[in-house]
Amino acid sequence: MPPAAGDREARREDVSQAVWQVLADKGFGGLTLRAVAAAMGVSTGLLMHYFPTKRALVGHALDLLERRTAARPRREPPAAGLAALRAALLDILPLGPADVARNRIWVSSWDLALADDDLGAGQAARYTRLRSALRAHLETARDLGELPQDADPERLAAGAVAFTHGLVVQALFDPGRFPEDAQVALLDGFLSSIAARP
Amino acid sequence: MPPAAGDREARREDVSQAVWQVLADKGFGGLTLRAVAAAMGVSTGLLMHYFPTKRALVGHALDLLERRTAARPRREPPAAGLAALRAALLDILPLGPADVARNRIWVSSWDLALADDDLGAGQAARYTRLRSALRAHLETARDLGELPQDADPERLAAGAVAFTHGLVVQALFDPGRFPEDAQVALLDGFLSSIAARP
DNA sequence: AGGTACGTAACGAGCGTTCGGTATGTAAGG
DNA sequence: CCTTACATACCGAACGCTCGTTACGTACCT
After folding, report:
1. CB proximity list for A92: less than 8 A, separation 6 or greater
2. Does B190 touch chain A (CB under 8 A)?
3. pLDDT tens, A5-19?
4. Which residues 102-161 of B have a C-beta within 8 angstroms of A?
5. B7: pLDDT strictly greater than 90
6. Distance CA A190, CA A198 (A)
7. Does the distance separating the beta carbons of A161 and B162 come in below 8 Å?
């Protein structure tokens, strides 16, 4: 049996965490193997021991970030429909330091994703998945009478994604102007604007 | 008198255009002086003749892109208020190839801007300027009765910027799913959702 | 013993930048 | 009008550095 067998995947996760740290700090322009190794206090040789190439190392870090994001603790939706949509969107916004770092990494990755067909397709697929998850909440909301009966859930889902991610970008660049309560107020304003009015 | 005096700034613009071309094609990760020189069919020596450093070259290209964007021909607002807001937002969306390239460059620049304090502050200032331009239209719209009387123009401006730029990002990654008419339909849906209802 | 887990050192490529050289033009001197 | 002087415009090669990657050595575990 190889020594410390089960640790191998754990080490790869450690490396990915260091990648996240460097990315959140310096962006993709400053992401070098030496910087990642320095962030871990190890040598670049270790990195190449666990990943065949830099691309694989970055790919694993982004994949793992997505899986961790999907599996992270979420807000309990207090009710179905619009309340659940609100909870899902609040989970996206950069309201805490961890969310800021996560969003920063995704926004930074767009430069690479727009130039690399594979990564670009992955990003597009992520958006499609997000829209269909939100669409479920919007369909429920419509059936509950929280939306106009003629509302188009797919279009509203795309709009909700647009609004939320556009807010993410503004908040990342100007956190002073978009503190937690300002982001929540903007989101609530958007949600009440799409809601059916009495 | 120096020979061909007035041409100097024109050459710097030529270089900046080549920078745009490389950025739209390969992103910041592929932006090298050799790539820019190759796109112009000149040597890297020429680039250093007109710019002291790569950072200055990139800075000039982004500055010039912003000025060109501000001075580009715009849609005639058919009326004041919401119609003017609609025209302004349509001018932002990637509805044609030129707008796609321009937006692609800005989105790509976010990786650099999030890591560089100067560029980040510039991006934040751009957002502030855009919001206040849109706020003017929203104030007019409110005064015209197109919005609820208690509408908050600054908050709505931030929301409109968020919606529009979030849509830009989705459209860049999935142009097949967001053709021109889909983007316009989404925008019109957003605008009618914030409008006062009869 | 032998395979795993590293560290250390080095390689070749590509980067931003520097340097010397050449061509071209204007400006001044005779 | 021709010559000299000098700045500008640009090229091609090269420098020093950093990058991703490779090769090799060593310690440890089984």
Report:
1. A99, A103, A164, A165, A168
2. yes
3. 568 899 999 999 999
4. 104, 107-115, 120, 123-124, 127-128, 152, 155-156, 158-159, 161
5. no
6. 17
7. no
The span from the CA of B18 to the CA of A195, in Å, is 47
How many angstroms is C1' of C1 away from CA of A4? 19
Dihedral angle computed from the Cα positions of residues B65, B68, B74 and B80, in that order, rounded to the nearest 10 degrees = 90
Stated length of chain A: 198
Checking if the pLDDT of A2 tops 50, the result is: no
Annotate A59-92 with DSSP letters as a single string: HHHHHHHHHHHHHS--PPPSSSTHHHHHHHHHTT
* Closest chain A residue by Cα to residue B157: A186
3-class secondary-structure state, position B73: coil
Predicted structure pTM score: 0.94
Tally A–B CB contacts below 8 A: 150
Selecting from B107, B115, B186 the residue whose C-beta is nearest the C-beta of A114 gives B107
**Residues in contact with B173: Cβ distance below 8 Å, sequence separation at least 6, in sequence order:** A113, A114, A120, A123, A124, A127
Backbone phi, psi, residue A127, to 5°: -65, -40
CA–C1' nearest nucleotide, residue B52: C17
| Secondary structure element (H or E) that encloses residue A99, with its range | helix A97-115
